[in-house]
Amino acid sequence: MTLPPVLQHLSLPVIASPMFIASGPALVAAQCKAGIVGSFPALNARPAELLDTWLTELQRELADYQAAHPDARVGPIAVNQIVHQSNDRLAHDVEVCVRHQVPIIISSLRAPPREMLDAVHAYGGIVLHDVVSIRHAQKALEAGVDGLILVAAGAGGHAGALSPFALVGEVRKFFDGPLALSGSIATGDAILAAQAMGADFAYIGSRWLATRESNVSDDYREAIVTSNAADVVYTNLFTGVHGNYLKKSIVAAGLDPENLPESDKSKMSFGSGSAKAWRDIWGAGQGVGLMDDVPSVAEMVERLKREYAAARARLSLGA
Length: 319
Ligand SMILES: Cc1cc2nc3c(=O)[nH]c(=O)nc-3n(C[C@H](O)[C@H](O)[C@H](O)COP(=O)(O)O)c2cc1C
Description:
The protein is α/β, with parallel strands linked by helices. The chain has a single domain (5-217, 286-318), classed as TIM Barrel (Alpha-Beta Barrel). It has helices at 25-33, 50-68, 90-99, 114-122, 134-143, 164-172, 188-197, 206-209, 218-226, 247-252, 274-280, 297-314, and strands at residues 14-16, 38-41, 77-83, 104-109, 126-131, 147-151, 157-158, 179-182, 201-204, 232-235, 243-246. The strands form two sheets. Strands 1-9-8-6-5-4-3-2 form an eight-stranded parallel beta sheet. Strand 3, helix 3 and strand 4 (104-109) form a beta-alpha-beta unit. Helix 1 (25-33) runs parallel beside helix 2. The model has no long low-confidence stretch (mean pLDDT 94). Bound molecules: flavin mononucleotide.
């Protein structure tokens, strides 16, 4: 199946994933200018009225950049919508995105409702839905999404527990549309591996935390750079859903990472109180051991391109 036009002209097959708090306009603008998909959760624009301002300014900045660099591949913007009853902004945020004709909507948690899909499809936008299991993948496809994001074991934030090989392999048995794979992808070699497995795109989150443009504290960046996979804890304590977090931040919050209590899904909330938890408890995937510096996004994308080309050459696929 051919990819939707909006995903055909990237400088690298990479979708930068949306990250609560961390993905602000500076990060998204830098990602798009580097030719990959740049994204942010709608909920990062607080209060809700700020979403319109962010989109207006981002779209203007990217149009100006494209005009000044006619040959540059400028990536599209994607906005993440959390489909959950605790997200009381959903209708507002979708309306703003429809008004701005945001080319890609990334839906998470529940499958997107029919009205949301119809509204996005009406202007030619696409909806990619993020899943951690085969059952969720099937449900989202039945609902009518255009593509899937498979969140495998080791991903930052809310993460699955399945091997990427199992997840991609099983989904490819019944879906030949746009597929992105996530979970600890932080190098050009891993982007190629995701494609070799059957995905079309690498969906990368944590690597952008340790860039100059991310909206995180210097302590958080430093913790990413100095942590390894063994310093990442998988727990459902903080949001009711299992996710990966840096051990250092759990210790700093006065908790014992080896003995965390269990939580349950009824604790899941995307209301205003959730922001504080994510500011203090640092989400990150198991790929942190591959992040040893804090480059700019442009430098990072150039590095990924070099690594990707070198990996292709190593496997005799041509640069
Ligand atoms: C700090 C942090 C916050 C995140 N917040 C969100 C979010 O608000 N919405 C969402 O769909 N995914 C969120 N994610 C998950 C990412 O979109 C993506 O699935 C994950 O980062 C990919 O794995 P990686 O970090 O190992 O690259 C978050 C991830 C991190 C690390």
